[in-house]
Protein backbone atom coordinates (compact mmCIF):
# COMPACT_ATOMS: atom_id res chain seq x y z
CA UNK A 1 0.00 0.00 0.00
CA UNK A 2 1.21 3.53 -0.70
CA UNK A 3 1.20 6.45 -3.08
CA UNK A 4 0.39 5.23 -6.58
CA UNK A 5 3.38 7.13 -8.01
CA UNK A 6 5.74 5.09 -5.86
CA UNK A 7 3.85 1.82 -5.87
CA UNK A 8 3.70 1.56 -9.68
CA UNK A 9 7.48 1.94 -9.91
CA UNK A 10 8.00 -0.73 -7.24
CA UNK A 11 5.45 -3.01 -8.92
CA UNK A 12 7.19 -2.68 -12.28
CA UNK A 13 10.55 -3.55 -10.72
CA UNK A 14 9.08 -6.56 -8.89
CA UNK A 15 7.32 -7.79 -12.02
CA UNK A 16 10.45 -7.59 -14.16
CA UNK A 17 12.39 -9.47 -11.53
CA UNK A 18 9.73 -12.17 -11.33
CA UNK A 19 9.66 -12.88 -15.06
CA UNK A 20 13.42 -12.66 -15.67
CA UNK A 21 14.63 -15.91 -17.15
CA UNK A 22 11.13 -17.36 -17.46
CA UNK A 23 10.34 -16.47 -21.06
CA UNK A 24 8.16 -19.16 -22.67
CA UNK A 25 9.48 -21.47 -25.34
CA UNK A 26 7.74 -20.23 -28.51
CA UNK A 27 9.71 -22.23 -31.07
CA UNK A 28 6.85 -24.64 -31.78
CA UNK A 29 4.34 -21.78 -32.11
CA UNK A 30 6.56 -19.88 -34.53
CA UNK A 31 7.03 -23.04 -36.56
CA UNK A 32 3.26 -23.36 -36.82
CA UNK A 33 2.89 -19.73 -37.89
CA UNK A 34 5.62 -20.07 -40.51
CA UNK A 35 3.78 -23.10 -41.87
CA UNK A 36 0.58 -21.06 -42.25
CA UNK A 37 2.48 -18.32 -44.07
CA UNK A 38 3.91 -20.90 -46.43
CA UNK A 39 0.54 -22.56 -47.06
CA UNK A 40 -1.38 -19.30 -47.44
CA UNK A 41 1.08 -16.78 -48.92
CA UNK A 42 0.10 -13.12 -49.11
CA UNK A 43 -0.66 -11.97 -52.63
CA UNK A 44 -3.18 -10.35 -54.94
CA UNK A 45 -4.38 -10.44 -58.52
CA UNK A 46 -3.83 -7.50 -60.84
CA UNK A 47 -7.09 -5.75 -61.81
CA UNK A 48 -8.34 -6.45 -65.33
CA UNK A 49 -9.96 -3.02 -65.78
CA UNK A 50 -6.68 -1.10 -66.08
CA UNK A 51 -7.10 0.73 -62.77
CA UNK A 52 -4.71 0.66 -59.85
CA UNK A 53 -4.40 -2.31 -57.53
CA UNK A 54 -5.26 -1.07 -54.01
CA UNK A 55 -3.01 -3.71 -52.47
CA UNK A 56 -0.04 -2.46 -54.49
CA UNK A 57 -0.70 1.15 -53.49
CA UNK A 58 -0.84 0.34 -49.78
CA UNK A 59 2.17 -1.96 -49.97
CA UNK A 60 4.24 0.80 -51.58
CA UNK A 61 3.15 3.32 -48.94
CA UNK A 62 4.51 0.97 -46.28
CA UNK A 63 7.71 0.15 -48.17
CA UNK A 64 8.60 3.75 -49.04
CA UNK A 65 7.67 5.17 -45.64
CA UNK A 66 9.12 2.47 -43.39
CA UNK A 67 8.36 1.04 -39.94
CA UNK A 68 8.97 4.23 -37.94
CA UNK A 69 5.77 5.81 -39.26
CA UNK A 70 2.29 5.60 -37.78
CA UNK A 71 -0.51 4.24 -39.95
CA UNK A 72 -4.21 4.78 -39.22
CA UNK A 73 -7.01 3.21 -41.24
CA UNK A 74 -10.76 3.62 -41.46
CA UNK A 75 -13.21 0.75 -41.93
CA UNK A 76 -13.71 -1.46 -44.97
CA UNK A 77 -11.57 -3.10 -47.60
CA UNK A 78 -8.75 -0.56 -47.21
CA UNK A 79 -8.67 -1.43 -43.51
CA UNK A 80 -8.02 -5.12 -44.27
CA UNK A 81 -5.41 -4.38 -46.94
CA UNK A 82 -3.61 -1.94 -44.64
CA UNK A 83 -3.47 -4.66 -41.97
CA UNK A 84 -2.10 -7.17 -44.49
CA UNK A 85 0.26 -5.28 -46.79
CA UNK A 86 2.11 -2.95 -44.42
CA UNK A 87 4.88 -4.66 -42.47
CA UNK A 88 4.49 -3.42 -38.91
CA UNK A 89 7.65 -3.85 -36.90
CA UNK A 90 7.07 -1.85 -33.71
CA UNK A 91 4.31 -1.29 -31.16
CA UNK A 92 1.83 1.59 -31.58
CA UNK A 93 2.45 1.97 -35.31
CA UNK A 94 -1.02 0.67 -36.34
CA UNK A 95 -4.11 2.62 -35.28
CA UNK A 96 -7.45 1.06 -36.07
CA UNK A 97 -10.92 0.70 -34.60
CA UNK A 98 -10.96 -3.03 -35.39
CA UNK A 99 -14.37 -4.64 -35.43
CA UNK A 100 -16.08 -1.56 -33.97
CA UNK A 101 -16.71 -0.46 -37.55
CA UNK A 102 -16.27 3.26 -36.92
CA UNK A 103 -16.17 4.73 -40.41
CA UNK A 104 -14.40 8.08 -40.36
CA UNK A 105 -11.84 6.97 -37.76
CA UNK A 106 -8.72 7.40 -39.88
CA UNK A 107 -8.27 11.16 -40.22
CA UNK A 108 -8.96 12.06 -36.55
CA UNK A 109 -6.77 9.17 -35.35
CA UNK A 110 -3.94 10.31 -37.60
CA UNK A 111 -4.34 13.86 -36.28
CA UNK A 112 -4.00 12.65 -32.69
CA UNK A 113 -0.96 10.55 -33.52
CA UNK A 114 0.77 13.46 -35.26
CA UNK A 115 0.14 15.79 -32.33
CA UNK A 116 1.42 13.15 -29.90
CA UNK A 117 4.51 12.33 -31.97
CA UNK A 118 5.14 15.27 -34.32
CA UNK A 119 8.48 13.92 -35.54
CA UNK A 120 6.94 10.77 -37.00
CA UNK A 121 5.37 10.47 -40.44
CA UNK A 122 1.67 9.73 -39.98
CA UNK A 123 -0.50 8.24 -42.74
CA UNK A 124 -4.28 8.09 -42.75
CA UNK A 125 -5.20 5.27 -45.11
CA UNK A 126 -8.84 5.84 -45.92
CA UNK A 127 -11.61 4.79 -48.28
CA UNK A 128 -13.65 7.21 -50.33
CA UNK A 129 -16.69 6.41 -48.18
CA UNK A 130 -14.91 6.80 -44.82
CA UNK A 131 -13.09 9.94 -45.90
CA UNK A 132 -16.35 11.76 -46.55
CA UNK A 133 -17.37 11.33 -42.91
CA UNK A 134 -14.51 13.29 -41.33
CA UNK A 135 -12.62 15.06 -44.14
CA UNK A 136 -13.71 18.42 -42.72
CA UNK A 137 -11.03 17.89 -40.07
CA UNK A 138 -8.48 18.79 -42.73
CA UNK A 139 -9.39 22.35 -41.78
CA UNK A 140 -8.28 21.59 -38.21
CA UNK A 141 -5.05 20.14 -39.57
CA UNK A 142 -4.24 23.21 -41.66
CA UNK A 143 -5.20 25.77 -39.02
CA UNK A 144 -3.23 23.97 -36.29
CA UNK A 145 -0.27 22.85 -38.42
CA UNK A 146 -0.86 19.09 -38.23
CA UNK A 147 0.72 17.83 -41.48
CA UNK A 148 -0.68 14.33 -41.83
CA UNK A 149 -0.64 12.34 -45.09
CA UNK A 150 -3.98 11.00 -46.34
CA UNK A 151 -4.11 8.18 -48.88
CA UNK A 152 -7.64 7.79 -50.25
CA UNK A 153 -8.05 4.28 -51.65
CA UNK A 154 -10.74 5.45 -54.04
CA UNK A 155 -12.67 2.58 -55.62
CA UNK A 156 -15.73 4.79 -56.11
CA UNK A 157 -17.79 2.49 -53.92
CA UNK A 158 -18.52 1.27 -50.43
CA UNK A 159 -16.11 -1.54 -51.17
CA UNK A 160 -16.69 -4.06 -48.41
CA UNK A 161 -20.47 -4.01 -48.77
CA UNK A 162 -20.10 -4.11 -52.55
CA UNK A 163 -17.88 -7.20 -52.21
CA UNK A 164 -20.62 -8.97 -50.23
CA UNK A 165 -23.21 -7.99 -52.84
CA UNK A 166 -20.94 -9.32 -55.59
CA UNK A 167 -20.31 -12.66 -53.89
CA UNK A 168 -23.60 -13.41 -52.19
CA UNK A 169 -26.28 -11.35 -53.94
CA UNK A 170 -25.51 -12.10 -57.60
CA UNK A 171 -23.83 -8.76 -58.16
CA UNK A 172 -26.87 -6.68 -57.26
CA UNK A 173 -25.03 -3.53 -56.16
CA UNK A 174 -27.63 -1.63 -54.21
CA UNK A 175 -26.52 1.83 -53.05
CA UNK A 176 -22.82 0.92 -52.93
CA UNK A 177 -21.57 2.38 -56.22
CA UNK A 178 -20.45 5.99 -55.77
CA UNK A 179 -19.19 8.65 -58.18
CA UNK A 180 -16.00 9.65 -56.42
CA UNK A 181 -13.35 8.28 -58.72
CA UNK A 182 -14.46 6.65 -61.94
CA UNK A 183 -15.74 8.52 -64.99
CA UNK A 184 -15.47 12.15 -65.99
CA UNK A 185 -17.61 13.54 -63.15
CA UNK A 186 -16.37 13.09 -59.59
CA UNK A 187 -18.74 13.83 -56.75
CA UNK A 188 -16.93 15.08 -54.83
CA UNK A 189 -13.63 15.78 -56.56
CA UNK A 190 -11.20 14.96 -53.76
CA UNK A 191 -8.36 16.97 -55.30
CA UNK A 192 -10.46 20.13 -55.45
CA UNK A 193 -11.78 19.44 -51.96
CA UNK A 194 -8.30 19.04 -50.48
CA UNK A 195 -7.05 22.15 -52.25
CA UNK A 196 -9.99 24.11 -50.85
CA UNK A 197 -8.82 23.13 -47.37
CA UNK A 198 -5.28 24.30 -48.10
CA UNK A 199 -3.71 20.86 -48.54
CA UNK A 200 -1.33 19.59 -51.17
CA UNK A 201 -3.56 17.45 -53.39
CA UNK A 202 -2.48 14.76 -55.86
CA UNK A 203 -4.45 12.36 -58.03
CA UNK A 204 -2.89 9.07 -59.11
CA UNK A 205 -4.45 6.93 -61.83
CA UNK A 206 -1.46 4.99 -63.25
CA UNK A 207 0.88 2.55 -61.56
CA UNK A 208 3.97 4.42 -62.74
CA UNK A 209 2.75 7.47 -60.79
CA UNK A 210 2.36 5.74 -57.44
CA UNK A 211 5.91 5.96 -56.08
CA UNK A 212 6.43 9.58 -57.14
CA UNK A 213 3.22 10.67 -55.42
CA UNK A 214 4.16 8.91 -52.19
CA UNK A 215 7.64 10.45 -52.29
CA UNK A 216 6.15 13.90 -52.85
CA UNK A 217 3.95 13.39 -49.79
CA UNK A 218 6.92 12.29 -47.69
CA UNK A 219 8.90 15.37 -48.75
CA UNK A 220 6.06 17.74 -47.81
CA UNK A 221 5.82 18.67 -44.15
CA UNK A 222 4.45 22.22 -44.18
CA UNK A 223 0.80 21.19 -44.74
CA UNK A 224 -1.36 18.07 -44.98
CA UNK A 225 -1.16 15.98 -48.14
CA UNK A 226 -4.11 14.21 -49.74
CA UNK A 227 -3.52 11.63 -52.48
CA UNK A 228 -6.52 10.38 -54.43
CA UNK A 229 -5.52 6.87 -55.58
CA UNK A 230 -8.10 5.77 -58.17
CA UNK A 231 -8.23 1.98 -57.74
CA UNK A 232 -10.28 -0.86 -59.14
CA UNK A 233 -13.73 -1.45 -57.65
CA UNK A 234 -13.41 -5.17 -58.40
CA UNK A 235 -10.48 -5.84 -56.05
CA UNK A 236 -11.50 -8.03 -53.13
CA UNK A 237 -10.27 -8.82 -49.66
CA UNK A 238 -9.11 -12.39 -49.00
CA UNK A 239 -9.43 -14.45 -46.89
CA UNK A 240 -13.04 -13.78 -46.06
CA UNK A 241 -15.33 -15.44 -43.52
CA UNK A 242 -18.98 -15.30 -44.69
CA UNK A 243 -21.64 -14.18 -42.25
CA UNK A 244 -22.95 -16.84 -39.91
CA UNK A 245 -20.10 -19.35 -40.30
CA UNK A 246 -16.91 -20.06 -38.39
CA UNK A 247 -13.25 -20.05 -39.38
CA UNK A 248 -13.28 -23.85 -39.27
CA UNK A 249 -16.19 -23.86 -41.72
CA UNK A 250 -14.17 -21.76 -44.13
CA UNK A 251 -11.38 -24.34 -43.90
CA UNK A 252 -13.96 -27.04 -44.64
CA UNK A 253 -15.17 -25.00 -47.61
CA UNK A 254 -11.66 -24.74 -48.96
CA UNK A 255 -11.45 -28.52 -49.02
CA UNK A 256 -14.99 -28.98 -50.42
CA UNK A 257 -15.37 -25.99 -52.73
CA UNK A 258 -18.31 -27.22 -54.89
CA UNK A 259 -20.41 -28.14 -51.84
CA UNK A 260 -19.54 -24.82 -50.23
CA UNK A 261 -20.61 -22.86 -53.30
CA UNK A 262 -23.92 -24.71 -53.37
CA UNK A 263 -24.60 -24.05 -49.69
CA UNK A 264 -23.79 -20.34 -50.03
Task: Break the fold down into its secondary structure elements and pairings.
Elements lengths: L3 H16 L7 H13 L14 H12 L4 E4 L3 H9 L8 E2 L10 H11 L5 E6 H7 L3 H6 L5 E6 L4 H10 L21 H7 L3 E5 L5 H10 L5 E6 L16 H9 L1 H7 L1
Parallel strand pairs: 1-2, 1-3, 3-4, 4-6, 5-6
Shape: globular
Biggest sheet overview: 6 strands, parallel
CATH hierarchy, class of the largest domain? Alpha Beta
Ends distance: 59 Å
* CATH architectural category of the largest domain: 3-Layer(aba) Sandwich
Q: Care to count the β-strands?
A: 6
The strand line-up of the biggest sheet is 2-1-3-4-6-5
> Considering DSSP H and I runs of 4 or more, what fraction of the residues is helical?
40-55%
Mean pLDDT metric: 91
CATH superfamily of the largest domain: Thiamin diphosphate (ThDP)-binding fold, Pyr/PP domains
Order of helices and strands: HHHEHEHEHHEHHEHEHH
The name CATH uses for the topology of the largest domain is Rossmann fold
- Number of helices, where a helix is a run of at least 4 consecutive DSSP H or I residues: 12
Give the radius of gyration.
21 Å
Tell me the β content: 5-15%
Model regions low in confidence, pLDDT < 50 over at least 5 residues = 259-264
Amino acid sequence: MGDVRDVLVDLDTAFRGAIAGSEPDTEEWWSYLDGLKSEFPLGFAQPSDGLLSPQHVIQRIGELTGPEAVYAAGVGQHQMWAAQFIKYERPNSWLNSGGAGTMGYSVPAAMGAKVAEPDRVVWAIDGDGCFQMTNQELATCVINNIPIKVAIINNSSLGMVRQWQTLFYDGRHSNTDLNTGHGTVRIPDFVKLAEAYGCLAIRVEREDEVDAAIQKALETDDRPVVIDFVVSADAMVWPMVPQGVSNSYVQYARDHAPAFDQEI
